């Protein structure tokens, strides 16, 4: 079966949670899942929960600081960008060595927004995958030029928040 590319984007909350639900379903079907998380900071509730799902679902976060990237000082951002580069290299290795059936690139679209990854580089990652690998990407906005690379795009928006 050909692997699909799914995108969860939008201004609303729940993109990562939606991707995680997909991961739990895949793991329940005996698939190996790897999540590579960017820009989230080291300490989120989701991370501690996902750790309990290992080894079926493995999480790799290349964060040095607890805070989100946007809350870092310029010096910390520069250091964090090195870790983000390591995360992207790891992602390429996962794809090249076919380490999983489902790969989630959590907040990878945010790297595009910040100029830490180019659309061309992201396309190269996706295009280099085995045709059976399923890829899920999350982030606030999906550039129009990447829409053709996705099989399914889900826009998550908040209707009401109290």
UniProtKB/TrEMBL annotation:
One GO biological process term: cobalamin biosynthetic process
GO MF, one example: corrinoid adenosyltransferase activity
Enzyme class: transferase
Pfam families reported in the protein's UniProt record: CobA_CobO_BtuR
Keywords, sorted A to Z: Transferase
Record InterPro entries: CblAdoTrfase_CobA, P-loop_NTPase
Protein name as catalogued: Cob(I)alamin adenosyltransferase
Organism: Anaerostipes rhamnosivorans
């Amino acid at each position: 079966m050909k692997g699909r590319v799914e995108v969860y984007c939008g201004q609303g909350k729940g993109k990562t949670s939606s991707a995680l639900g997909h991961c739990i379903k895949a793991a329940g079907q005996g698939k190996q899942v790897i999540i590579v998380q960017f820009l989230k900071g080291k300490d989120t509730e989701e991370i501690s929960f996902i750790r309990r799902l290992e080894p079926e679902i493995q999480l790799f976060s290349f964060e040095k600081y607890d805070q989100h990237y946007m809350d870092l000082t310029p010096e910390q951002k520069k250091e964090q960008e090195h870790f983000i580069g390591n995360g992207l290299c790891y992602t390429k290795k996962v794809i090249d060595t076919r380490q999983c059936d489902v790969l989630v690139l959590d907040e990878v679209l945010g790297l595009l927004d910040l100029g830490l990854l180019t659309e061309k580089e992201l396309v190269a990652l996706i295009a280099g995958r085995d045709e059976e690998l399923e890829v899920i990407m999350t982030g606030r906005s999906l550039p129009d030029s990447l829409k053709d690379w996705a099989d399914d795009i889900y826009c998550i928006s908040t209707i009401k928040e109290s």
